[in-house]
């Protein structure tokens, strides 16, 4: 849950409270964490049938039921009570004494403990289950939610004008839940998409299989967001015009939470309404609310297109990481003996020159003493000990050498190349791109401008609308055309289905 300023309420906890709540996740760090997880799943199974307080025999029976349906359930009958006590020590469950369960005097003399989830402990357990149940294929952007939010805002304004307390509370609660779900979905989708785009281990075949559906999904979401955003902003202003203070008072009076006083309920609903209002009325250039979501989605579309271009070029060339590894595996398999195979693998992966170096971090207090070498952050190592194993010395200062002649020659060549490009661009602007054969410099300028125009193109409802690219001298525009166009070059004809090219001098171009 977020407050009106965009922060989390968890930020209000002090270090002691944070430590106590982190202790609820201790079972995930124990040696047999899988066994503890299934014990909690058994207790959750009993909780689902309204058996709140259970003893170890009830938990064992629930574990046997789970084992009949799941083969991975471990056998923990001998250590079940110890596991329950450990979970109680962590605070994830409560341990209570219930003498009424003792059927005999011997059982009465022994400890008769019953266990039940604590409120925070159950939240910690469900959080772990949510992480384990998360799948990449479940990430999505909900574009249909905007129409529901618009209907709820309009109904909220009508209910507030009519003075219907229960309807005001019902609509505000629904808006709060829908907004929280939408923000969580969008954040999860963009994190997942960022991992797909930046990860080098992503399957190209899987990405290419779903690329069209992914781009269509994001384009439809952008179109729906652009269509509903002005209406949602107006609906928020209509709700405020009906009386914000009266609306919050009505929602607080209909709120039936017994552990909050009247002023606390009003303050809580005020915080929720301000968060919702800020989401739809933020400035277009700000990075929060709907504007930030729109900008993040547009950047994600650009990242997906860039990755698609990279994978397409790799497949077109026929040489990529997968093909190189397959060829290397074939070479290693065809070596005459095992020593030759090890030598070839060591040379391919540079395993012979590995040197294990270590050192102290600049701020050692930031690194936990329990962190492994694999998880600890890296440090900078000098090149001399890396190559030779000897400590690096300061060495003698070297004189600064400058070659003014080479620099001047390079500068002259750069000026000449730039002048040739400007001349080709001006010739291209004067003669146009269609109806003639371009020479080599004009073709080079045309391809550069076409690349920039395609990178800056805008797509609406899955169709290319326009695109502009320039180099400071001329400007190229992609003009949609049903007939399409073609450009003749020294190397052949470049077909442009769906649009033609319009080239004109840059309005603010200079010759420097």
Quickly describe the structure:
Helices cover 57% and strands 9% of the residues. With 512 residues, the protein is of the alpha+beta class.
Tell me about this structure.
The chain folds into three domains: 9-133, Arc Repressor Mutant, subunit A (Orthogonal Bundle); 136-308; 419-505, no CATH class. The longest helix is centred in the middle third of the chain and has 38 residues, at 204-241. Mean pLDDT is 78; it is low at 1-7. A hairpin with a 3-residue loop joins β4 and β5. The chain has helices spanning 15-22, 33-48, 56-69, 80-90, 105-109, 119-133, 145-162, 165-198, 204-241, 244-254, 262-281, 289-317, 321-333, 338-349, 383-388, 404-431, 440-455, and strands at residues 93-97, 113-117, 458-460, 463-470, 474-480, 485-489, 492-496, 499-505. It has 17 helices and eight strands. The protein is of the alpha+beta class and 512 residues long. This is TIGR02677 family protein. It comes from Sphaerisporangium corydalis.
């Amino acid at each position: 849950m977020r407050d009106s300023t965009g922060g989390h309420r968890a930020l209000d906890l002090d270090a002691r409270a944070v430590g106590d709540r982190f202790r609820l996740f201790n079972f995930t760090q124990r040696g047999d964490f899988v066994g503890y997880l299934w014990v909690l799943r058994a207790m959750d199974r009993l909780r689902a049938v309204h058996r709140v307080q259970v003893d170890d025999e009830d938990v064992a029976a629930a574990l046997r039921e789970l084992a009949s349906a799941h083969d991975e359930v471990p056998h923990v009958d001998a250590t079940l009570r110890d596991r329950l006590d450990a979970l109680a020590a962590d605070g994830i469950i409560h341990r209570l004494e219930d003498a009424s369960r003792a059927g005999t005097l011997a059982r009465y003399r022994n400890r008769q403990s019953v266990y039940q989830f604590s409120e925070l402990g159950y939240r910690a357990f469900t959080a772990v289950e949510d992480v384990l149940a998360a799948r990449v294929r479940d990430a999505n952007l909900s574009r249909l939610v905007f129409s529901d939010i618009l209907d709820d805002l309009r109904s909220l304004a009508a209910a507030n004008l009519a003075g219907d307390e229960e309807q005001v509370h019902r609509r505000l609660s629904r808006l709060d839940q829908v907004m929280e779900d939408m923000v969580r979905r969008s954040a999860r989708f963009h994190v997942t998409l960022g991992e797909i785009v930046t990860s080098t281990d992503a399957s190209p075949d899987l990405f290419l299989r779903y690329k069209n559906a992914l781009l269509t999904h994001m384009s439809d979401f952008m179109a729906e967001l652009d269509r509903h955003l002005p209406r949602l902003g107006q609906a928020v202003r209509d709700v405020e015009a009906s009386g914000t203070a009266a609306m919050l008072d009505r929602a607080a009076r209909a709120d039936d939470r017994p552990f909050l006083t009247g002023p606390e309920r009003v303050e809580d609903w005020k915080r929720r309404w301000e968060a919702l209002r800020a989401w739809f009325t933020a400035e277009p250039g700000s990075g929060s609310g709907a504007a930030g979501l729109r900008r993040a989605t547009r950047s994600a579309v650009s990242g997906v297109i860039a990755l698609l271009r990279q994978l397409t070029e790799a497949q077109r060339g026929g040489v990529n990481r997968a093909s190189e590894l397959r060829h290397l595996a074939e070479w290693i398999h065809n070596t005459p003996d095992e020593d030759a195979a090890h030598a070839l693998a060591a040379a391919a992966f540079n395993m012979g020159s590995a040197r294990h170096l270590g050192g102290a971090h600049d701020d050692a207090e930031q690194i936990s003493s329990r962190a492994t070498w694999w998880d600890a952050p890296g440090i900078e190592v000098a090149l001399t000990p890396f190559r030779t194993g000897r400590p690096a010395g300061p060495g003698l200062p070297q004189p600064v050498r400058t070659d003014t002649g080479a620099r001047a020659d390079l500068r002259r060549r750069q000026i000449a190349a730039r002048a040739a490009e400007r001349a080709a661009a001006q010739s291209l602007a004067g003669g146009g791109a269609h109806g003639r054969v371009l020479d080599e410099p004009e073709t080079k300028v045309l391809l550069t401008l076409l690349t920039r125009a395609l990178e800056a193109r805008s797509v609406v409802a899955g169709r290319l609308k326009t695109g502009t690219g320039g180099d400071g001298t001329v400007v190229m525009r992609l003009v949609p055309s049903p007939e399409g166009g073609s450009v003749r070059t020294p190397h052949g004809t470049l077909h442009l289905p769906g649009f033609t090219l319009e080239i004109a001098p840059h309005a603010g171009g200079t010759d420097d």
